[in-house]
Write a structure and sequence with these properties.
The complex is a heterodimer of chains A (about 650) and B (about 150). Chain A is α+β, with helices and mostly antiparallel strands and about 650 residues long. Chain A is built from 18 helices and 11 strands. In chain A, the strands form 2 sheets. In chain A, strands 3, 4, 5, 6, 7 and 8 form a 6-stranded antiparallel sheet that branches. Chain A has a 4-stranded antiparallel sheet with strand order 2-11-10-9. Classes of the chains: A alpha+beta (about 650), B alpha+beta (about 150).
Chain lengths: ~650, ~150
C-alpha cells in the first residue's frame, strides 16, 4: 500500500509541477497576480508530494518491503538502519527521487525568500525551476519508477554493495546533489534574466549567495567522495580522474568560475553575458554529470545499469534544457551590454584570468571525459584517456592561476595594485621560494623542480591570503564576511595545493608479502606483522592483521587492517587501517592469503595527504562565510537567505 | 585604443588562448590514449608490442595460479574464442574473481603473455565492463594466417 501511495504522490507532484510552470510563466507574461500566486502555491504542493513519495520509499526500505523491486535489489534483512535509509539513494531510481526532492527544497527556499524581487521576475524563476522538476518527475515515472513491485516478492533482498556501506558514502550523494541541484537556482535566474532582457547589480547580488551555497555543498560532497575513496577502496589514492569524479568536478569548476565572474558583475557591471553563460554551463554540466553517472554510458569503475529508453529520454531532456537555454542566450544576450572599462592590473583583469584558466581546465577535462564516448559512438576501436592526460591539462592552467591569485586578491577594482602592496607581496614571494627550497631539502632531502614550484605556489597563496586579515587588523579596519570568506577559501586552496604537492612527490607505496614475525621498511618506518587472527563482526567474518609500526626503534603506532567476507555473499572486502598524522598518514591494507602463512599487504606512507581535504573544507567554509555577508541581506534582497539555505542543505 | 582595435585584440587573445589549449590537449593526448583489445584481437596480432594498452575479458575458471609465498599471480583472460595469459605482481582488487569480467592495463611481452601493471576494480559484482560485454557479443575475427 505504501509504495502505491508513493507512486500516486509522484504523479500528483508532476501535475503540481506542471501547474507551477504554467501559472508562473503565463502569469509573468500577462502580469496576472493571481496566476503568479497560484504558481507559488504549487511550489509548496509539489515539494510536499515529492517529500511524501520520498518518505514512502524510505518507509519501504526501513520496513524491509522486498516486494518493491528497488528495495529488494538494494538492501537485505541484515542491513543496519542507517544503511537501509542511505540505500534509498544507493542507485539510479532512488537517487533521481532524491534529486527531485532537493530541487523541490531549493525551489521552496527561493520562493520563500524572494519576496523582495520584482514579481514577474520571481515568477519566471519559479516557472523555470518547475520545468526542470517536470523533466525529472517525468523521467522517473516513465523510465525509472522506484515503486515498481516484484511478483512474487522474494524472501530476502540482495545486498547494498559492501563498499557502499559506509558513513561518508551514505551522506556523500545528498550533499553532492545539493550542490548539483543548487546550480539550478543560478540557471533559473539566468534564464529569467534573459527572458526579461535586463541585468542589474541587484541581480548579481541576489544570485551570489545562492550560487555560493550550491558551490559549497558541491565542494564538501567532492571532498567526502575523495576521502571515502582513500580509505575505503583500499588503494590509498585520493583522486583517480574517473569519469564519475570528473562528472562532479566539472560543474564545480564552472561554479568556481561563476562565483568569480559574479563578483565582477555585481561590483562593476561587467562580464554580464559571460556570467549568464557560466550560470547556464554550471547547471548543464550538473545535469550531464547526473545522467552520465546514473545512466551507465560511461566506461567506469562505477557501474550502473543501462537502458535504451532511459538513454533517449536523457538525451532529449539534455537537448531541451541546454539547447533551450543556449538558444535563449543567443537570442537575448546581445542586449546586455557592458560598458565600463578598467586597467590591465585591476582586480577585474585578475578575475578574468581566473575565468580563463578555470574554463580552460574545464574544457580540457570535458574533452578527455567525453572523448571515449565519441569514439564509441563512431564505432572506432574503444579507447580510454589515462589519468596522466588529466594531470597535465589540469596542472598547466593551475600554475599561472595560483601565481596570479596571490596578486589579484590585493588588486583594487578599476585601478590596480597599490604601491604598498607591491612591497608586501615581494616579501611573501621571497618567503615562498625560500620556504619551498628549505622544505624540499631539509624535510624530504630532495629538490625536484615540480615539487619546489608546487610548494612555493602553496606558500605564496597561503601567505598572500593571510596578508589581508593581518593588514586590516593592524589598520583597525573592519573585515566583512565576504572578505573573510575569500581569505579562508583562498588559504584553503593553498593548503590543498601543499597537500597535493607533498603526497604526489613523496608518497611511498609498496605491495609486499609478509609472514608473522617479519617486517618491512617503508619510508623509515618498520612495519612488523605480529599477529593474524580471525574476527567475527555483526554481518561479516574476517581476518585481522596486527602490524606494529616503529621508527628508529621507537614505537609509533599499531595498525590493524582486516579482510572481510560479508554474510550476504559477494566478494571479500579490505578494511584498511590508517594512522593519521599532521605530517603524514601511515596506511595498511591486507591483501590475500599467499600460502605458507604469508599474506600480501599494501603499505603506504602518505605525507601531507590530510591537507587536501582540510583545504577543501576551508574552501567550503570560506564560501559559507561569504554567503552570510550583510549586503546580501539588504532590504531589496530577501531577509535571511543563508539561514534558509542551511535548512534546505540539511534536508 | 579605439573600440575596433580593442575588439581585434580580444579576438586575437581568444584565438591564441584556444590555440594554446588545443596544443596542450594534443600533447597530453599523445601518450595517454589507451586502446582496448580483446583476446581475439591480441591473438590476431592486432595489438601493439612495447606500448601500453588495455585488455579485457572473463577470468577463466580455475586459471588463477599463485607462486606460493610471493605476490606473483598468473591467470587467463578469455572472450570464449581466444585466451591470453596475464601476469601481475601486486595486490588484486577486492572484486577480482574467477569467472568474472576484468580489465588489465599493461604491455604484451615477447612470449605473448600480458604483463599487467594494474588490474581494474569495479564497484559491483554483477557489472561487466562495457568493452568486455561488447567484445563477447562480437563475432570472432578471422583466424590469423599461418
Amino acid at each position: 500500500m505504501i509504495p502505491e501511495l508513493g507512486h500516486f504522490a509522484l504523479v500528483l507532484a508532476l501535475l503540481l509541477a506542471l501547474a507551477q510552470s504554467i501559472f508562473s510563466l503565463a502569469g509573468a507574461m500577462r502580469s496576472h497576480p493571481a496566476w503568479m500566486a497560484a504558481g507559488r502555491s504549487a511550489v509548496v504542493g509539489q515539494f510536499v508530494f515529492v517529500a511524501l513519495a520520498f518518505g514512502a520509499l524510505t518507509t519501504s526500505f526501513v520496513q524491509y518491503d522486498f516486494s518493491v523491486e528497488y528495495v529488494a535489489s538494494h538492501s537485505n534483512s541484515q542491513l543496519p538502519l542507517l544503511f537501509r535509509v542511505a540505500a534509498v539513494w544507493g542507485a539510479h531510481e532512488g537517487s533521481l527521487l532524491l534529486w527531485a526532492l532537493i530541487l523541490g527544497g531549493w525551489t521552496l527556499a527561493v520562493t520563500a525568500l524572494s519576496g523582495g524581487l520584482d514579481a514577474p521576475f520571481r515568477s519566471r524563476v519559479i516557472g523555470i525551476l518547475g520545468l526542470i522538476s517536470i523533466g525529472f518527475l517525468l523521467f522517473m515515472l516513465l523510465t525509472s519508477n522506484p515503486f515498481n513491485r516484484l511478483v512474487p516478492a522474494p524472501a530476502d533482498g540482495l545486498d547494498l554493495n559492501p563498499v557502499l556501506q559506509d558513513f561518508a558514502l551514505a551522506v556523500h550523494p545528498p550533499i553532492l546533489y545539493c550542490g548539483y541541484v543548487g546550480f539550478a537556482v543560478a540557471f533559473a535566474f539566468a534564464c529569467a534574466t534573459l527572458l526579461e532582457g535586463r541585468l542589474d547589480a541587484a541581480w548579481a547580488r541576489w544570485t551570489r549567495p545562492w550560487t555560493l551555497a550550491a558551490w559549497l555543498c558541491l565542494t564538501v560532497g567532492i571532498a567526502l567522495g575523495s576521502w571515502w575513496a582513500y580509505y575505503e577502496l583500499g588503494w590509498g589514492g585520493w583522486w583517480f580522474w574517473d569519469p564519475v569524479e570528473n562528472a562532479s568536478f566539472m560543474p564545480w569548476l564552472a561554479g568556481t568560475a561563476l562565483i568569480h565572474s559574479l563578483a565582477v558583475t555585481e561590483k562593476r557591471g561587467l562580464f554580464k553575458s559571460w556570467t549568464l553563460l557560466l550560470a547556464v554551463t554550471a547547471f548543464s554540466l550538473s545535469l550531464l554529470g547526473t545522467f552520465l553517472v546514473r545512466s551507465g554510458v560511461l566506461i567506469s569503475v562505477h557501474a550502473f545499469a543501462s537502458d535504451p529508453a532511459r538513454g533517449v529520454f536523457i538525451l532529449a531532456f539534455l537537448i531541451a534544457v541546454i539547447g533551450g537555454a543556449l538558444g535563449l542566450y543567443a537570442w537575448r544576450a546581445p542586449r546586455l551590454k557592458s560598458t565600463a572599462g578598467f586597467e590591465w592590473t585591476a582586480r577585474e583583469s585578475f578575475l578574468l584570468f581566473n575565468n580563463v584558466f578555470v574554463v580552460a581546465a574545464l574544457g580540457l577535462i570535458l574533452l578527455g571525459t567525453l572523448y571515449p564516448l565519441f569514439i564509441q559512438a563512431l564505432e572506432l576501436p574503444p579507447v580510454s584517456v589515462g589519468p596522466p592526460y588529466f594531470d597535465l591539462v589540469f596542472l598547466v592552467p593551475m600554475l599561472p592561476l595560483l601565481t596570479l591569485l596571490g596578486v589579484g586578491m590585493h588588486a583594487a577594482w578599476k585601478r590596480g595594485l597599490l604601491q604598498s602592496w607591491r612591497r608586501r607581496l615581494t616579501g611573501v614571494a621571497v618567503i615562498a621560494v625560500v620556504g619551498a627550497v628549505v622544505a624540499g631539502l631539509a624535510v624530504y632531502g630532495d629538490l625536484r623542480p615540480m615539487t619546489t614550484i608546487g610548494f612555493a605556489l602553496a606558500i605564496w597563496v597561503m601567505g598572500s591570503s593571510l596578508l589581508i586579515p593581518i593588514s586590516r587588523l593592524r589598520a583597525r579596519q573592519a573585515l566583512p564576511a565576504a572578505v573573510l570568506g575569500m581569505v579562508i577559501a583562498h588559504f584553503g586552496f593553498g593548503l590543498a595545493t601543499l597537500g597535493i604537492t607533498g603526497v604526489t612527490s613523496f608518497k611511498v607505496e609498496e605491495n609486499i608479502s609478509l609472514a608473522v614475525g617479519e617486517a618491512a621498511t617503508i619510508a623509515g618506518h618498520d612495519f612488523r606483522l605480529t599477529e593474524l587472527k580471525r574476527v567475527d563482526g555483526p554481518n561479516f567474518i574476517g581476518v585481522e592483521a596486527t602490524l606494529v609500526v616503529s621508527r628508529d626503534g621507537e614505537a609509533v603506532t599499531t595498525l590493524r587492517p582486516q579482510k572481510r567476507l560479508y554474510n550476504s555473499g559477494g566478494n571479500p572486502m579490505s578494511e584498511v587501517d590508517i594512522d593519521v598524522g599532521a605530517a603524514r598518514d601511515l596506511f595498511a591494507a591486507l591483501g590475500d592469503d599467499l600460502g605458507q602463512g604469508r599474506w600480501s599487504l599494501r603499505l603506504q606512507y602518505k605525507p601531507l595527504v590530510r591537507y587536501i581535504w582540510l583545504g577543501a573544507l576551508l574552501i567550503a567554509l570560506g564560501g559559507g562565510i561569504a554567503a552570510f555577508d550583510r549586503r546580501y541581506r539588504r532590504k531589496e534582497v530577501a531577509q535571511d537567505a543563508p539561514a534558509a539555505l542551511a535548512t534546505s542543505a540539511s534536508r | 585604443m579605439t573600440p575596433r582595435r580593442k575588439r581585434l585584440f580580444a579576438v586575437l587573445a581568444i584565438v591564441a588562448g584556444v590555440g594554446a589549449a588545443a596544443a596542450l590537449a594534443m600533447v597530453a593526448f599523445q601518450d595517454n590514449l589507451l586502446y582496448f583489445y580483446d583476446p581475439s584481437q591480441v591473438a590476431a596480432g592486432e595489438a601493439p608490442t612495447g606500448r601500453t594498452f588495455r585488455i579485457g575479458g572473463m577470468v577463466t575458471k580455475g586459471s588463477v595460479e599463485r607462486t606460493t609465498g610471493t605476490l606473483a599471480i598468473r591467470f587467463v583472460v578469455t572472450d570464449y574464442k581466444h585466451s591470453i595469459a596475464v601476469r601481475y605482481d601486486g595486490l588484486l582488487p577486492d572484486l577480482f574473481r574467477e569467472g568474472q569480467g576484468v580489465i588489465a592495463h599493461g604491455k604484451l611481452s615477447e612470449s605473448g603473455e600480458f604483463i599487467a601493471d594494474e588490474i581494474l576494480a569495479k564497484h559491483d559484482e554483477n557489472y561487466m565492463p562495457p568493452e568486455v560485454a561488447n567484445s563477447l557479443k562480437r563475432p570472432p575475427p578471422p583466424e590469423p594466417a599461418g
